[in-house]
Amino acid sequence: MAEAEPKRNHRPPRKHGSVNAYLIKKTVSQGLLDVALLTSNAALLRVIILAGSDAIHFYYFLVTLLSLSIILQIVAAMLLFLRTRVDWEEDDERDRANCMNDWATLTVLVITIINIIIGGFTSDFNPGSVVTKNSPEPATNNKTVQQLLELLSSK
After folding, report:
1. Domain residues of the chain, as ranges?
2. Apex CA 120: angle with CA 107 and CA 134, to 5°?
């Protein structure tokens, strides 16, 4: 019996991962950036709600924009997660994956625009000057630095 010749058009298996592995890593890194923005928006929303509508001129506008941004960030995270579940190497699923990728990109663009607007309305806002129920007077940066220096010099 003669031995079968190896196929010449056969592609060797990839040694260092596939396109799917790259896309999963890319999506995870995007997700970490999204977590930072989500944390920042949640903290700013908390400060604005604690300050109340009397202390902030655009209270309802900012609460609406921050809430919308947080909701869209959750939607973008779900789209990015679903995108990782699609096999990009199969032709049948590639169109579905491209559609999810386009929607995720559009969602991130809208989130970016919303956060630019939020930044414009909160650029002169000092979270340290908000009076909460637990603090009888506004905290200032100078007072905090003075307290820290007193603690350091007493030891």
Report:
1. 20-124
2. 100
Q: Which two tokens stand for residue 109?
A: 């663009």
pLDDT score at 91 = 73
Say if CB 51 and CB 125 are below 8 A apart: no
| Termini Cα distance of the chain | 90
- Residue 72 has a CB neighbour count (10 Å cut-off) of 16
Q: What local confidence, expressed as pLDDT, does residue 147 receive? A: 55
56: tokens are 């902030």
* pTM of the predicted model as reported, rounded to 2 decimal places: 0.63
What tokens does 126 get?
A: 């000092």
Predicted confidence at residue 34, as pLDDT, reads: 75
pLDDT of res. 77: 86
User: What is the C-alpha to C-alpha distance for residues 107 and 110, in angstroms, rounded to an integer?
Assistant: 5
Specify the amino acid at residue 142. N
Q: How many CA atoms lie within 13 A of 91 on its CB side?
A: 0
Which stretches in the chain have pLDDT values below 50? 14-16, 131-142, 155
Structure tokens at 112: 């970016």
